[in-house]
Amino acid sequence: MTLRLLILLAVLMAAPSGAAFAQATPRTLAIRTDNDAFDFWMRPWNRPDYEYTSGVHITYDGGDAPRWARPFLDRTRTCVTRMSSCRAGRLELGQDIYTRDGHITDSAQLRIARPSAGWLYLAQSARALHENRAHDLTIALGVTGKPSLAQLTQRLAHAAAPAFNRPTDWSRQISFEPGVIVRYDHRRRAAMSAGALGVDLIPRIGASVGNVLTAAEAGLQVRTGWHLPHPWLPSGERAAITLLVGATAQAIGRNMFLDGNTFRDGPRVGHETFVGLGEAGIELRYRWLTAAYRAVSESRAYAAGPKWHPWASMVGAVSFAR
Description:
Layout: H1 2-22, E1 26-35, E2 51-62, E3 85-99, H2 107-112, E4 117-130, E5 133-144, H3 150-160, E6 178-188, E7 190-194, E8 197-210, E9 213-226, E10 239-255, H4 256-259, E11 274-286, E12 289-299, E13 308-321
Antiparallel strand pairs: 1-2, 1-13, 2-3, 3-4, 4-5, 5-6, 6-8, 7-8, 8-9, 9-10, 10-11, 11-12, 12-13
């Protein structure tokens, strides 16, 4: 009798804990650093230090969708673990840095070289997530020019490892301008699995409108791995290994970092209408920790630009629930 009572009490005590875990709202804090210094397949002195040369992005995923989007998402609930349809929010603070090749000194070449530029922004996203599709609407507000702190950031980074850095010149840069980008992304997913191994195909389309960037794009990503986690819904997997490859085609209408400031004269070189991008990467997940590496190569962005520009991302993330 005593043993049965103890078992009953244990079950009753465990039930609320288990229910709370099942209904926990997952949240993830991630830091992504983009840099051409991470092109580890190249010797350090051969890695580029220009074009899109650096980016730092801090994101906080989870919780409810932003208030401005909830009237459009009132039929869905806030995401919890293992839900197949839900809504969520994302907040991102980021800085992107673009520079020209510092070895260019000829005046004729300088006129056709891209200007240096920085973009410091805060973005908020509303996300409608389902098992086989996802919709993201993002509003980003930021600044270019000296208030973006791009020149200061690059100088501090170069001071840490001067032996491998290239010369930089910020005498020609995009001037200060408040910026806004409204972006919409739609993704689909087709998945297959055999035991612990899985593979999925993720086609996507997207569009951006704003004085900083106006563009449309379409892409396809292929992922495979062990305990393959869902690409956007909260996953309960404790350990996973994911490999991915992908390609994206972009049609550019305006790119301030190449086309110059909107309402004032300044350096500009114009943009290529169509740009391609290829990527390959790996992601490792164990319990609440995630680490990822992604190598990217972009095609020529403007007439005098390099045919291909490689850079890479390193990501560290920690997930928790409350």
